[in-house]
Amino acid sequence: MKILIFGPKARYDLYMPEFVKDLPVETVFCSRESDLQAAKDHPEAEAIFADAITPVGREMMDALPNLKLIHSEGVAFNAIDTAAAREKGVFVCNNKGCNAVSVAEHTLMLMLMALRHGVTGHNAVRAGEQIQFKERVMASSAPELGEQIVGLIGLGDIGMATAQLLRPFGCQLRYYTAHRRPPETEAELGITYLPLEELAAQCDILSLHCAVNSQTTRMVNEEFLSRVKPGAILVNTARGQLVDNLAVRQALIDGRLGGIAMDTFDPEPTPADHPLVDLPPEAAGRAVCSPHLGGITGGSFRRAHRNMWTNLQLVLEGKRPNFIVNGL
């Protein structure tokens, strides 16, 4: 079986499970920019492995008549045309849960950096202004994380892992999701369900953990932001498409948002003049930016690549793969 892989060979070599050497597969490594041409050059390919931001559309699938499997290298799969794949009987799979702990750790780090002056304090020390900065913070009644009401928007694998990490801090935890979790799950996590509007109004920190779909795209928009608790901090380790960039920028400048901490942006790669990156001085100090590192740990990649190659082996054996996301 020939596989088109949209990702660097060095990464696949590093995380490839031992059992793959015994599989009857041929790998072809492709650049993201040559996606359609790669399909046309290798029409006999039966599988695609793609990083989470490589588009896999209908035209590419049309060029691969023997295609059986499209696998996201991550958890997100919004760059894949799942409807077209379903029409063609092609499995689309993701690596559900593989990066939950990693992203939860990163989320916690961003919350703390936003609350505890992680970037501005670092810059002050480097500029020789340590004492002046410290005096300003002492006069500001700086909050502790444990004093915050934290609202998680989405409570899947990553949201639940984030809740588990937050509990020891003593935060009050709230959540919203389209499908409320069972009472025993809420009790185990020490978390309370709220409708989205109430969550926005009550929480000091709002953290995004939901997938991108027709209901959630640009959900953090001007209307949503008009309801948030004044001075709330917005954290996004999910996907940049969840937020309206210009609305969030304006809310930060106006002070409606006390801060933002963003690991994901739309678009990616993120340009230097992005509305949430190129901020005026009065807002820049309240923004923490991270280059989409939430899921980037050796552990998450080892789990992801084991799942991907296991699913390929299952398809080779005529079996259903795990974590199918397109309804087949």
Overall pLDDT score: 96
Strands in their spatial order, largest beta sheet: 8-7-6-9-10-11-12
Helix percentage = 25-40%
Q: Order of helices and strands, N to C?
A: EHEHEHEHEHHHEHEHEHEHEHEHEH
- List how many beta strands DSSP finds: 12
CATH homology superfamily name of the largest domain = NAD(P)-binding Rossmann-like Domain
The number of helices is: 14
Distance between the termini: 21 Å
Structural class: alpha/beta
Radius of gyration: 22 Å
Which regions are unreliable across 5 or more consecutive residues at pLDDT < 50? none
CATH architecture of the largest domain: 3-Layer(aba) Sandwich
Domains (count): 2
- Beta-strand proportion: 15-25%
Sheet with the most strands, sense and barrel status: 7 strands, parallel
The name of the CATH topology of the largest domain is: Rossmann fold
CATH classification class of the largest domain? Alpha Beta
What's the SSE blueprint?
Layout: E1 2-6, H1 9-15, E2 26-30, H2 35-41, E3 47-50, H3 58-62, E4 69-72, H4 82-87, E5 91-93, H5 100-115, H6 118-126, H7 130-138, E6 149-153, H8 157-166, E7 172-176, H9 183-189, E8 191-193, H10 196-202, E9 205-208, H11 222-225, E10 232-236, H12 245-254, E11 257-262, H13 281-284, E12 287-289, H14 298-316
Parallel strand pairs: 1-2, 1-3, 3-4, 4-5, 6-7, 6-9, 7-8, 9-10, 10-11, 11-12
Helix pairs in contact: 5-8, 6-7
